[in-house]
Design brief:
Structural class: alpha+beta
Distance between the termini: 89 Å
Strand content: 25-35%
Radius of gyration: 48 Å
Number of helices: 4
Length: 407
């Protein structure tokens, strides 16, 4: 019996050991669960699909502002004082066009040729009439020489009392008649020569020539079309071959409010900035003030000349000008650079302007200070640096830290 009790006692479980093993199992389970959760989070974060976006760089601009020392600012356009849409003197059919847009042309250069078949036929008729007039005059001159000889013989015969005086008078009348006919023939010759000259001029007019040196900025007609010096035939008849601009006659025209026109004087130095080249400051001067005002706009037009022309200056370009106090020998100091971003990059959140800045493949939300709008761009006063890239096209649900893919 004692042996049975000893055996049962040996099978009894120690409660302290059992509790220790239970606590160890719980910790192991908790650790395994944490590892599984961390692994799942890592897998999810690495496999999340990147959001497609478009980005643009933050750009530093230095031009476009008013020049230091300016007493007045205005805007206008580049214009050409010599500009012509070249047409023909007569209505005709275009056979060939020898000019293209952007090509330089010389004064007198043939720009187009019209159908001249009718003009050549008319010239041939005029030449034939002139030849006929010359032949008729030559025939009358030969008859006049014969009549003068006859008159001389009859005068001698009258002296010798061989023939009567009436025969002498008839001879004299014949001479006078032939002289009159020759005079008429000479006038006919002059008329025929004038007609030939006119037909030759008409033939020359079938070639359209450049009126001055310049550059063709448009080609308005094609071979086969009808052209006329006046608008005729609706849309089926052209009124010009090409438009020629004398690039040496480029200047600026601006409208100045009549309230400030007293600040403008002839010869006044100007600093011009083309909209196409905001960093390029062009020296210029006032040519004159057009002596009339626009009563509807209350402005006065001012003509401004460039100090030196440049191939980059083109007709009808937009330009901003600053009227200066005095002419400066050197360019003024470079103006402060300003940062600009596309207006589409700026969003509003909680009443503040923000942008999303690219950081590798993630975006960082930044609060910024904004300034004036410059076309489709906005000046940024704070929050970003030049060269950083910002999102300009992305989903409205984009948030800080999102993974993105730049398209």
């Amino acid at each position: 019996m004692s042996n049975l009790k000893d055996d049962l006692a040996s099978l009894r479980i120690d409660q302290n050991a059992r509790a220790s093993r239970g606590r160890r199992g719980i910790w192991i389970t908790v650790l395994l669960v944490a590892i599984v959760i961390a692994a799942a989070g890592w897998i999810w974060s690495t496999r999340v699909e990147a959001v497609p976006v478009k980005a643009a760089a933050v750009v530093a601009q230095t031009g476009g502002g008013a020049a230091p020392g300016a007493v007045l600012n205005a805007s206008g356009y580049v214009t050409a004082r010599r500009r012509a849409t070249v047409s023909s003197k007569v209505t005709g059919k275009v056979l060939e066009v020898f000019v293209e847009e952007g090509k330089a042309v010389q004064k007198g250069q043939v720009l187009a040729k019209l159908d001249d078949s009718q003009m050549r036929a008319a010239l041939s008729v005029a030449l034939a009439q002139l030849e006929t007039a010359h032949r008729g005059a030559a025939e009358d001159e030969a008859k006049l020489r014969e009549a003068e000889l006859t008159l001389a013989r009859r005068e001698q015969l009258v002296k010798d009392q061989v023939i009567s005086k009436s025969e002498l008078d008839a001879a004299r009348a014949e001479v006078e008649s032939l002289r009159a006919r020759i005079s008429v023939a000479q006038q006919q010759i002059k008329v025929s020569e004038s007609l030939v000259s006119q037909r030759r001029t008409d033939l020359v007019d079938m070639q359209v020539r450049a009126p001055f040196d310049g550059v063709a900025i448009s080609k308005d007609a094609q071979p086969g079309e009808m052209i006329s010096p006046v608008s005729a035939g609706g849309g089926f008849t052209r009124s010009g071959i090409a438009t020629i601009v004398d690039m040496s006659s480029l200047e600026i025209e601006v409208d100045v409010s009549e309230s400030y026109i007293n600040r403008v004087r002839p010869g006044q130095p100007i600093e011009a900035v083309l909209d196409a080249y905001p960093d390029w400051r062009i020296p210029a001067h006032v040519i004159t003030t057009v002596p009339t005002a626009d009563r509807q706009k209350a402005t006065v037009r001012v003509r401004i000349g460039f100090e030196q022309l440049d191939p980059r200056i083109l007709p009808d370009m937009g330009v901003k000008v600053s009227f200066l106090n005095e002419r400066r020998a050197e360019e003024s100091a470079t103006p402060r650079a300003k940062l600009v971003v596309p207006s589409s990059a700026i969003r509003t959140a909680n009443g503040r302007s923000i942008v999303f800045v690219l950081r590798d493949d993630r975006v960082e939300r930044r609060a910024i200070g904004v300034g004036a709008a410059i076309g489709d761009q906005v000046e940024v006063l704070s929050g970003v640096s030049a060269g950083e890239r910002v999102v300009v096209d992305g989903p409205q649900t984009l948030k800080d830290g999102d993974k993105v893919k730049v398209q």
